[in-house]
Design a protein that fits this description.
By secondary structure, this protein is an alpha/beta fold. The protein has one domain: 3-Layer(aba) Sandwich (Rossmann fold). Helices cover 31% and strands 28% of the residues. It contains 5 helices and 8 strands, in the order βαβββαβαβαβαβ. Strands 1, 2, 3, 4, 5, 6, 7 and 8 form an 8-stranded mixed beta sheet that branches. The two termini are 20 Å apart. The structure holds guanosine-3'-monophosphate-5'-diphosphate and magnesium ion. Guanosine-3'-monophosphate-5'-diphosphate is lined by residues 21-27, 128-129, 131-132, 167-169. Magnesium ion is lined by residues 25-26, 68, 71.
Length: 194
């Protein structure tokens, strides 16, 4: 990533994180945003909001606006607001939590209904916590992640859907996830004057 300051116009990209509580959404945000972040806690609407400027392929300026839903049940009525205008979503399950994998399609359904954008948001499906797969237990496999991606594309008639496995703990594929999502979403946003 380039260190030059962002000048002139840029792509403004609203991204939301969806998926069950505990799958690692906040950890993925923190890992991506690192220390260079503006972090504003907005308790009234139950979401954390982050901004991060990057240059995709070292030339394309993108300002990520990342919304990380805090997830308290009492804030469910603001989920529509949170989804509205999102051009991209990180749809996260945990590879050590099969229920979160099974529930992800319902999150995607809600996002598509509530985002209000056409074409629908680009979606990066993430199987997180792969560092835990080395231990004992039953895990969601990468093949199952691919199956979910294909199912989501087919069921909702979407083109901009991708899948990666990540670890917010080790950092594996975290930057890659946000960048790939941005590349898919860029075709749907226009540059904004600074
Ligand atoms: P959420 O925002 O989706 O609710 P969090 O999830 O980011 O709060 O993460 C929930 C718990 O999972 C946290 O542990 C966090 O440290 C852990 N976690 C998140 N991502 C990973 C990962 O990639 N690998 C491992 N091993 N753990 C992860 P605690 O113990 O704080 O509840
Ligand atoms: Mg969280």
């Amino acid at each position: 990533m380039s260190k030059k300051p962002m000048m002139g116009s840029y792509y403004l990209l609203k991204v939301v994180l969806i998926g069950d509580g505990g799958v690692g959404k906040t950890s993925l945000c923190r890992r991506f945003v690192e220390k260079k972040f503006e972090h504003k806690y907005l308790p009234t609407i139950g979401a954390d909001f982050y901004v991060k400027n990057v240059f995709l392929d070292d030339v394309t300026p993108v300002k990520f606006q990342i919304w990380d839903l805090a997830g308290q049940p009492r804030f469910h009525s603001v989920v529509d607001m949170y989804f509205r205008g999102a051009r991209g979503a990180l749809a996260v399950y945990s590879v050590v939590d099969r229920e979160s994998y099974n529930n992800l399609i319902n999150w995607v359904k809600r996002l598509i209904e509530k985002s209000g954008v056409r074409p629908p948001p680009a979606i990066m499906i993430l199987g997180n916590k792969i560092d835990l797969r080395a231990g004992p237990g039953e895990f969601v496999s990468p093949e199952e992640g691919e199956l979910l991606k294909n199912r989501i594309m087919k069921e909702f008639g979407l083109k901009n859907v991708d899948f990666l496995e990540t670890s917010a703990k080790t950092g594996e594929n975290v930057i890659e996830s946000f960048y790939r999502l941005a590349k898919m979403a860029l075709s749907m946003v226009t540059r904004t004057a600074k």
